[in-house]
Design goal:
The complex is a heterodimer of chains A (299) and B (155). Chain A is 36% helix and 15% strand. Chain A has 299 residues and is an alpha/beta fold. In chain B, the strands form two sheets. In chain B, strands 2-3-1-4-5 form a five-stranded antiparallel sheet, with no helix packed on it. In chain B, strands 6-7-8-9 form a four-stranded antiparallel sheet, with no helix packed on it. Chain B folds into two domains: 2-96, 2-Layer Sandwich (Alpha-Beta Plaits), CATH 3.30.70; 102-148, Roll (SH3 type barrels). Classes of the chains: A alpha/beta (299), B mainly beta (155).
């Protein structure tokens, strides 16, 4: 039995199969493969966007949904342990989608559950279906995952989406450009991973000068609370904002991705540029999640 | 030299002598092996001279013998320790400590947001470096190093 807790639970082959499947679902979104199946969506912390995306995916597959969107209305508020909740729900459902504020909660659930678990986010740790939809968006817009130039911008230290995307894209001979303030640079362990796989990367602190070669610009939010020194935040906060005029000399095929929600790191004047892809990217989440669900249930 | 050793910590007839414990780790070893609840004769020596460690600690426990998994539990705090098995005042066997590939329920995960620090779940680590004692949490993936290692108390 396979669960999807981290993107590394999927092999390169698994990822490629899932992306192919996602394209099939996009072409034909209503396929009642889960007819007669029950999927639990357990949101121990609220996340409306992710929950609606999963529930749309399950509905389009013809499955039924049980679950909760906020733990405060459940026995968890009476002190029920995570173990007991998972053991109980695994008796009812064929698959569990869970989001939890604590890191490692989904891995633990996968260890004790008798049905597959999909991690819909465990604190700041992993969110593998976000990575799957990022990969799907990249493949769909570039026609391939191989040999691309990806600029990752903003908070590369704490951003879980960039870490998971890096792990997955390093399977496809990607050239990485890390553009971040020093405080939020890509952690050493991820750079070591790239070295071990002979993957090239560059590190820069200027945004405008280093996006000319990019096929994908992956923007993330630079959050004030990540800085020990507020003066340092004030210094860099506007350095990592993408404006429409900065896209003039970029490649014609470049697409701008963002895991959303955005605050001010992409200026609103970019939204109408055909190179902006972040809203379509979010829409791809449903197909990527349909593919992940079917993969785990062997459909 | 030999005479001096005999004077400092008295010999036991049967049991185990745990030697080459770093001086700062004596009470952690006591904790991990639950020797605080041991009913047999127990001798602890701390801050003794050691050629190898500078200062060291030693534990002599009468009529008590340790299984391999118990021995390896102390590898986190005393990787160079030696277990001398004593029968009738003679050293019958010397056993070294080896850090296992996985560690269950001995150390706390360094990540305050890790599920094991909030739910009744035993910790579990993969040992990613035996030399530097780096433990990667099997749940949250964060790495705990020796400097930030906290041993879970035996209740």
């Amino acid at each position: 039995m396979q669960s999807l807790v981290s993107i590394t639970d999927f092999s390169k082959q698994d990822i490629l199969q899932a992306l192919e499947r996602a394209a099939e679902f996009e072409a034909n979104p209503n396929q009642p493969l889960l007819s007669g199946k029950v999927v639990a969506t357990l949101f121990f912390e609220p996340s409306t966007r992710t929950r609606l995306s999963f529930e749309t995916a399950i509905n389009r597959l013809g499955g039924r949904i049980i679950g909760f969107s906020d733990a405060s209305s459940t026995s968890i508020s009476k002190g029920e342990t995570l173990k007991d909740t998972i053991m109980m729900v695994a008796n009812y459902a064929d698959l569990i989608v869970m989001r939890h504020p604590l890191e490692g909660a989904a891995r633990y659930a996968a260890e004790i559950s008798r049905v597959p678990i999909i991690n819909a986010g465990d604190g700041a740790n992993q969110h593998p279906t976000q990575t799957l939809l990022d990969l799907y968006s990249i493949q769909k817009t570039q026609g391939t995952l191989h040999g691309l130039n990806i600029a990752m911008v903003g908070d590369l230290k704490y951003g879980r989406t960039v870490h998971s995307l890096l792990q997955a894209m390093s399977l496809f001979n990607t050239h990485f450009n890390f553009i971040a303030p020093q405080e939020l640079a890509m952690p050493k362990e991820y750079k070591q991973l790239l070295k071990s796989r002979n993957i090239a990367y560059e590190e820069h602190s200027e945004l405008a000068e280093h996006i000319g070669e990019a096929d994908i610009i992956y923007m993330t939010r630079v959050q004030r609370e990540r800085f020990l020194d507020p003066i340092e935040y004030e210094r860099v906060k506007n350095v990592y904002v993408l404006h429409n005029k900065m896209l003039q000399d970029t490649k014609p095929n470049v697409k701008i991705l963002h895991p959303l929600p955005r605050v001010n790191e992409i200026s609103a004047d970019v939204d109408d540029n055909p190179k902006a892809y972040y809203f379509a990217q979010a829409g791809n989440g449903v197909f990527a999640r349909m593919a992940a669900i079917c993969k785990l249930l062997s459909y | 030299m030999k005479e001096e050793k005999h004077l400092k910590v008295s010999a036991i007839k049967n049991g185990t002598v745990i030697d080459h414990i770093p001086a700062g780790s004596l009470f952690k070893v006591v904790e991990i092996l639950a020797l605080n609840r041991c009913k047999s004769q127990l001798t602890l020596g701390n801050n003794l001279e050691s050629k190898r460690l500078g200062t060291k600690a030693i534990i002599k426990v009468a009529d008590r013998f340790f299984a391999d998994d118990e021995i390896n539990r102390i590898a986190l705090v005393a990787p160079q320790a030696k277990f001398n098995i004593i029968k009738d005042y003679e050293v019958m066997e010397k056993r070294t400590v080896e850090l296992p590939d996985t560690i269950v329920g001995i150390a706390k995960c360094v990540n305050p947001m890790c599920v094991t620090n909030h739910q009744p779940i035993p910790t579990k680590f993969n040992v990613v470096s035996k030399k530097d004692v780096l433990l990667q949490c099997c749940y949250c993936d964060k790495v705990t190093d020796q400097e930030r290692l906290v041993i879970i108390k035996n209740e």
